[in-house]
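Tokens in:
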């Protein structure tokens, strides 16, 4: 199995890896453009938003943190569903 002077199997493997990497890069590029096009939603308006959203805001340093009830670790905020 020789195609010209190059063996067919290594060329096919390298081509397959190249196509996989190209597809992965295109997928991530598509996701990135989708995030850039979405408008950020203020934290106070999250209850009116639907679907996946990009949250914008500013975190401020607090005097103390709160303890997460499930993990017991320090955190800024938590939500229980």
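Residues out:
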């Amino acid at each position: 199995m020789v195609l010209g002077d190059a063996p067919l199997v290594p060329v096919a493997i390298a081509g397959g890896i190249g196509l996989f990497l190209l597809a992965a890069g295109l997928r991530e590029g598509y996701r990135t453009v989708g995030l850039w096009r979405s408008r950020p939603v203020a934290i106070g308006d999250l209850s009116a938003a639907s679907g996946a959203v990009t949250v914008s805001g500013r975190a401020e340093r607090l005097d103390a943190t709160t303890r997460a009830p499930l993990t017991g670790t320090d955190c800024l905020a938590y939500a229980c569903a």
